[in-house]
Amino acid sequence: MELLPRSPAEFGSAHYWDRFFRQRGQRPFEWYGAFPELCPVLYKYVRPRDKVLVVGCGNSELSEQMYDVGMCEDIVNIDISDAVIRQMRERSASTRPKMSYLLMDMLQMDFPDSHFQVVLDKGTLDALLTDEEEATLTKVDQMFAEISRVLQVGGRYLCVSLAQAHVLKKAVEYFSQEGWVVRVHQVASSGDKQQFVLPVFVYVMTKFRKIPGSAAQILEICPEEQDKPMRVESVERLVAAVKDRQHYALLCSQISKTPCREQVSLDLCDKDSGKPRYTLHVVDNPSVKPSRDNHFAIFIIPQGRETEWLFGTEEGRRQLAASAGFGRLVTVALHREQHYEGMASIQAELSGKVMELAPPGLPARQQVPFLSVGGDIGVRAVRHCGSSPLSGDFVVEDVRGDGTCYFRRLIFLQNRNVVQSEARLLAPTPLPGHKKRRKDKKKPSPTEPPGAIDKSYLCCEHHKAMVAGLCLLGGPDALPGDLAVLVVGLGGGSLPLFVHDYFSQARVAVVEIDPSMLEVATCWFSFSQGDRMQVHVSDGLDYVAKLAAEAPAQYDAIMFDVDSKDLTMGMSCPPPAFVEKPFLQKVKTILKPEGVFVLNLVCRDAGLKESVLAALRDVFPLLYARSIQGEVNEILLCQAGPAGRRSPAELGARARALERALRQPGRPWDSSWALAEALQAVHIL
């Protein structure tokens, strides 16, 4: 039996609805949601003594159920279908004497002004507003005007809707411009019993007297998991907030039925601030044969470790899921602006929400484990927050790494998943001759990591490769002598500090465009200037151009480790202007004939990367490349002199010789890495 209309216009036709209800018979037709789902919202806005008007009632049981549970009895139902009005009168005549059914067009109602405290609409607006044609919008304006007329001041228009963007926008704009308070509730779903994949919403429009000349709007949204409304500043933001919830519902529906071919990412926001509180990645592992105990797990990433390869990359998360041995793993990253009590509170907060992301076939009442590293949520302490016109907002934070080590990090918040600079912190050293009695021993506070910077340790793999590239200088068995080194890009200062401290005769010049970074490096990363270390606050492009014109061939090594502020480019390091051929010619000009130009290249755009390499080859005939495993970084070692090509084996030998020269008695050396290893897999381009 065909009940669907031949065109959207038929939704407004009395003839269509007469035919619909005659063919459907006595079976109730519920547009969206059943009474149990709508009841919590209705109870907030319908009082027992209210006079309620239901527009476009159809043969829904909603009015009957409201009456039967005592929510309200003075209910008037109207519809344009004579057939359905007769059905409903017969159904309620003997059992609900105070409820009435009238044949009436809601566009032209016979009721006096200010007659009702509540107007209830379940799907009627959606049925009328099927398009945005002028004739349709005129009808909708008539509907809204009539609802406004029959409602008392302080009365509520409750509209149950799927909240298509054009429907929501039209309703909110109309009533907010009339000075009404607009609040949108998301209706809690009933799991498998829900008829629609998309969530159901209730618009609550509360009538106030319009104040002439006032443009103030009160717009709010109440997500299903909370009672407290969230204020939004514009109609567009309200529509966007609803759309986010619709997308989430579609996502949950999709991944509950089929495995994810690609990793799915979503943010869960704080209910008070609206800012992201958790970032979730859904990772499916098709190699796992599901059993009762390995269907699904949640992995809480320790604070501060979300940028590590294992947690911060798709491949790393795939490896994590495989090692965990679950068919679906949801990783959860914690945001630095938020406060977390501990694993138990996070589990309580997330347990309901993550179950919406459960895989197909999860047994009923299955216990889902929460996993982490070491069983806790890690440690993150924000030491400094700042802002710069050039770098934007940034933070300096201390985090606990794997084991007992602490690290200090500089993060630019416009690219919060990338560690800009990192340094290891030294363990505290007891005072000479001071011994604590056993009973005085205290566990170190997890929020008070040690503060001294370990200058012997290079945290970044690309920095290790850049330092190892200096083995191209000097003889095969000797430490390069009186080196002149130019570093463009300061960050926390780890790279120039290491060169300064371990190449005891090196003179290091650093160019940094942002004076705020010099202050951060000095105050928080133990960077200092001296006779052999000078910082020039300048644009690297201008500084190199000026040197090329005034003082050519003065540097043994030039290192570029400078980020791009333009996140729309496929290359985040360096800015494109630093690798254009005319500028590279200037770099070559200030480099000594047998010097080395070391470039940290981070480029995801294959075409752009090839053009960069082509420009480098045109200027520097000898080009070595070292890719950093698990990262996009690639270190390029460029030479223009007659030194000749060196095989990877020869480079390894030179790196080992350089390391022997750098390891001096009394000078700390981090034994976890070797210069030769930093040049592993280097190849000639």
By oligomeric state, this entry counts as: single chain
Through-space gap between termini: 71 Å
In CATH terms, what is the fold-level topology of the largest domain?
A: Rossmann fold
CATH architecture of the largest domain: 3-Layer(aba) Sandwich
GO molecular function, one term: methyltransferase activity
Family: Belongs to the methyltransferase superfamily.
InterPro entries: Lys/N-term_MeTrsfase_sf (IPR051419), Methyltranfer_dom (IPR025714), SAM-dependent_MTases_sf (IPR029063)
Keywords: Methyltransferase, Multifunctional enzyme, Transferase
Task: Give the SSE layout.
Blueprint: H1 14-24, H2 35-45, E1 52-55, H3 62-68, E2 75-79, H4 82-92, E3 100-103, E4 116-122, H5 124-128, H6 134-150, E5 151-161, H7 165-177, E6 181-186, E7 201-206, E8 218-222, E9 230-232, H8 235-257, E10 264-269, E11 276-284, E12 296-300, H9 309-312, H10 314-324, E13 328-334, H11 343-354, E14 370-372, E15 380-388, E16 392-400, E17 406-412, E18 419-425, H12 461-468, E19 484-488, H13 494-502, E20 507-512, H14 515-524, E21 533-537, H15 540-550, E22 555-560, E23 571-573, H16 581-590, E24 591-603, H17 606-619, E25 622-627, E26 633-639, H18 648-662, H19 675-678, E27 683-684
Parallel strand pairs: 1-2, 1-4, 2-3, 4-5, 6-8, 12-13, 12-14, 19-20, 19-22, 20-21, 22-24
Antiparallel strand pairs: 5-7, 6-7, 8-9, 10-11, 11-13, 15-16, 16-17, 17-18, 23-24, 24-26, 25-26, 25-27
Helix pairs in contact: 7-8, 15-16, 16-17
Domain Methyltransferase: 50-172
GO molecular function: methyltransferase activity
Keywords: Methyltransferase, Multifunctional enzyme, Transferase
